[in-house]
Amino acid sequence: MEVLKFGRKRPHAKFVMPASSKIVFGYECLKQKFVAMYRKVIIVIGYRELTSLVFLKDSGARDYEISLLSVCHDHLSGGSISAMFVFQILGTGMDTQDTSPSVLLFFDKQRFIFNAGEGLQRFCTEHKIKLSKIDHIFFSRVCSETAGGLPGLLLTLAGMGEEGMSVNIWGPSDLEYLVGAMRSFIPNAAMVHTHKFGPASNSKGDASPTSAKFDNPLVLINDEVVKLSAVLLRPSCPEVDCLLENLPAQSSDAKAESALKPGNLAVIYICELPEIKGKFDPNKAAALGLKPGPKYRELQLGKSVKSDHQNIMVQPSDVLGPSLPGPIVLLVDCPTLSHLEHLLSVQAFTDYYTDACNSLPQGSKTVNCVIHLSPAHVTNTIKYQEWMTRFGGAQHIMAGHEMKNIEVPILKSSARIAARLNYLCPQFFPAPGFWFHQELENSPSDLRPSNEGLLSNCHEMIPAENLLKFHLRPYAQLGLDRSTVPGMTSHKEIIDELVLEIPEIMDASQQVSNLLLGHSKPMKEKTSREPRKIVVEEPCLYENAIPSCLESITREDMEIVLLGTGSSQPSKYRNVSSILINLFSKGSILFDCGEGTLGQLKRRFGIKGADDAIRGLRCIWISHIHADHHTGLARILALRRDLLKGEPHEPLVVVGPRQLKRFLDAYQRLEDLDMQFLDCRHTTEDSLESFELDADGSDLSPRNNVNEKDSDQSSLLDQKVGATLFAKGSRMQSYWKRPGSPVENATALPILKSLMKVLKEAGLEALSSFPVIHCPQAFGVILQAADRINSAGKKIPGWKIVYSGDTRPCPELVKASLGATVLIHEATFEDGMVEEAISRNHSTTAEAIEVGDSAGAYRIILTHFSQRYPKIPVFDDNHMHNTCIAFDMMSVNLADLPVLPKVLPYIKLLFRDEMIVDESDDVIVETAVA
To answer: Which superkingdom (predicted)?
Structure first.
């Protein structure tokens, strides 16, 4: 096979080769290629640079120059030239119902993606889908459900190559608000090109009716390859109708002015491919007096030509067979019953409806597929299903994530790890929710079709599955393709595989059960294919005295749930940072809230349990502005808003760095988040000491006295840590620990009172932030429980949890961790990567443990591991006497703290062949925002 490569300066070329030869040519620097076949010549085209090409049809010297665009969309019905156009379902959210599904359209020239909910990037990493090739992102709505994964995706694209990747985003509202809000934590936000359509907005971010044309399709892209149009849907309610009719200002109240926020609009996208031209008949052309040559090409492009031997004009229809209409796909997002009223009245769909006999009226277009992103409570109504029947024989893919709960986890790699950990130690690793959900076994009425007979005229109604494809081209493959849909792996299959792989794990599981029951026995050495020691139990594991705060503790007091334990960006095995402090009947608190936090909550607690946890949130605390610590926040707040709608409640207090407020304020132009913001700086010890609240948080008075004993102890500690390996506080750190100004304190006071009130109701004494060394406005946090009285009337001190956030070891963190019951500390790098840790203001495993040891912390939990460690980080056993490694969904109850470090050797057994660094190209290690 001879290979001919085209360079930038050679976009055109001609060749003459024997017809039996196979010739491959293309632009060598391109990764994406369009593959076509023409007779006996195989052509591979680099589509971005190459504009035309010449190839051989028959033997001899006759050659033809064919336009690249013509090759891309023309199809000779005999099957000689074809292109690939495929819709594919990504991340339906059906195992957790936490986000809107995404739909990928890929074809020869570029790739479009519709919606980018949380977890999209993690899902694509798992299934090796290269999001770096995405040119356009379209949103059916602009809200946390559909756009929650956008910040993480843009960060990944911004970090690719020397200048990052450019992407276009399209939506039905003022996307610049969202993109502008993200500029504080996405360095290359300028690489994002926004294309808004629909109603304009006023200065307050509310939709203005003056430019709204809801009934006319808006053509977004129209070229030789694809035509993409948008139809806007608005909710039908009196306030919105009043607004859109543009009544005089005096007749509109504040409610009407804000009735139509950008996030209220929804979009239906219509994707139409060009018609498939009929097969060119050279015999007919010859009979009409045409010689082979360029005129053949003109006719195939739809142009008339003059005959070479006859005095006539030859029309394309004279030499081409009948054309086939191009395939059409609709993506429908009708989020509420209020939007449905408008959907039923939209005139733009008239051209696509069939008549009562299921045949197309004159001039109508055949719809091949409708992908429904609408939720089940809408799609199961009689009106919606009657609307579906108007599309005749179209196939309907039901992708609304509330349809049913299938037992195929979206993140199979993570689910496999969770199942194995659960087998080893179910007390620390409760059963994965997607294998043990009970709430949807008896499907509620709103998840069942309202009237099965309504859809009898529809060609087919198909539940969406992850990676399900619908082919549009080549024409011979038109329709569904389930070949890439992942199959179900049962819990039993995973455990059987584990036992076969590590036979010793059965004894290890029993030993862990004995430990937790207080009947610890040394594990005997086992042998497998390779003789090795399984566990060497260290005597120092038993030397720590149990702190008094754990006396008479119950399993209903508190547990720490590690929802995300990875850094930088989600991976197959670890999500990004998030920790739930579960206070059971007293509510819960979130420390950090990376992308996918909601999905992790639902995997841990089940769908209903996660909703209950979100209803019971007392506070969310965010350590710093890096995206891996806060981009799941909007989704959590939006769901809480919806869950509590109609119930009396207070806005949730979000404590975070000041930069976060800019993002939240801008985001609230899109949808209300029902929250109030408190700067971390107003919750530092110095700031709290500048004023004093009464026990009920109702009054303010100056605090002039400082406990001299505490002051002396802090001074001695400063001297101690200043002489050790710990870095002294930087100017940045010193600045952010200052108390706020009187004006700032006055503004923050009402919110601080609210925080104090909810903390007291939850049995907590204090939540205080302290500055750490990582980036500007980076903080750690102390959560102190109130003292309690046991049944004998004895006063028992409250437990103390400290979370480091991201940081280098520093004196502030050591002081904060003094006497901590649990220190949750980042350990991004292994011990041999100190220089890397210093350059990125992170900690190594040994440094994190030394911080805890210096402060006398009872237990240390290490988290925030670099994604270079795919399943378990590298650590030194000699340091782990009071320490444990965190895993996603790990739940540490206060009552189990005494045995926590003793479980680590058994966990190490589980990963004995996998404690290696992942050098995969799919892992981008430690981006600048980690």
So the answer is: Eukaryota
pLDDT at 57: 36
Tracing tokens 């694509």 back to the chain, one arrives at 124
Distance from the Cα of residue 481 to its chain's centroid? 25
Pairing of strands 23-27, 2-6: parallel
Considering only CA atoms, give the Rg of the chain: 32
Q: Which residues of 502-526 are buried (b: 16+ CB within 10 A; e: fewer)?
A: bebbeebbebbeebbeeebeebeeb
Closest CA relative to residue 672, chosen from 254, 267, 263, 141: 263
CA 795, CA 626: separation in Å to the nearest integer?
41
Residues contacting residue 719 through CB under 8 Å, at least 6 positions apart? none
Give the position of tokens 């294998």: 435
Choose among 336, 333, 418: nearest CA to 96: 418
Confirm if 45 and 68 have CB atoms less than 8 A apart.
yes
* Alpha-carbon span 372 to 431, nearest angstrom: 32
Q: pLDDT at position 921, please? A: 38
Choose among 415, 601, 466: nearest CA to 91. Answer: 466
What's the rounded Cα separation, in Å, for the pair 153 and 147? 10
Spatial strand order of the sheet with 469-473 comes to 192-196, 167-171, 134-138, 111-114, 102-106, 85-90, 469-473, 479-481
In 3D, which of 804, 845, 812, 811 has the Cα closest to residue 828? 845
Closest to 15 measured CA to CA, from 68, 71, 61, 52: 61
Q: What is the pLDDT of residue 552?
A: 87
Tokens read off for 175:
């996307």
Other Cβ atoms closer than 10 A to 737: 18
Phi-psi map region of 117: left, alpha, beta (phi>0 left; psi -120 to 50 alpha): beta
CA–CA separation, 34 and 45 (whole Å): 5
The structure tokens listed for 525 are: 């050495």
pLDDT of residue 533: 42
Quick: pLDDT tens for 716-743. 444 443 333 333 334 444 444 555 566 5
Q: Quick one: tokens of 844?
A: 């190594």
Report the SS3 class of residue 481: strand
Q: Specify the pLDDT at position 317.
A: 86
Nearest to 923 by CA among 159, 218, 198, 214: 159
pLDDT of residue 97: 72
- Number of Cα atoms under 13 Å in the Cβ half of residue 259: 21
The residues near 307 (Cβ < 8 Å, ≥ 6 apart) are 288, 289, 290, 313, 314
Q: Which residue, 835, 840, 844, 800, is CA-closest to 820?
A: 800
Burial of 138 (0-12, 13-18, 19+ CB in 10 A): buried
Beta-sheet pairing, 395-398 with 559-564: unpaired
pLDDT < 70 stretches in the chain:
1-83, 94, 161-164, 184, 187-190, 200-215, 237-263, 356-363, 401-407, 432-459, 519-544, 691-743, 914-930
Is residue 570 within 8 Å of 597, Cβ to Cβ? no
Distance CA 462, CA 398 (A): 6
**pLDDT (0 to 100) of residue 497:** 93
Kindly state the DSSP code that residue 320 receives in the 8-state scheme: B
**Residue-level pLDDT at 559:** 97
The answer to whether 654 and 754 are in contact (CB under 8 A) is no
Closest CA to 214 of 175, 268, 255: 268
Dihedral angle over CA of 885, 890, 894, 897, nearest 10: -30
Query: Contact 885/872 with Cβ under 8 angstroms?
Result: yes
The pair of structure tokens assigned to 92 is 């339906």
Q: How high is the pLDDT of residue 544? A: 59
Cα gap 562→625, rounded to integer Å: 20
Tell me how far apart the alpha carbons of residues 208 and 838 are, in angstroms, rounded to a whole number: 51
Please provide residue 581's backbone torsions phi and psi, each rounded to the nearest 5 degrees: -95, 100
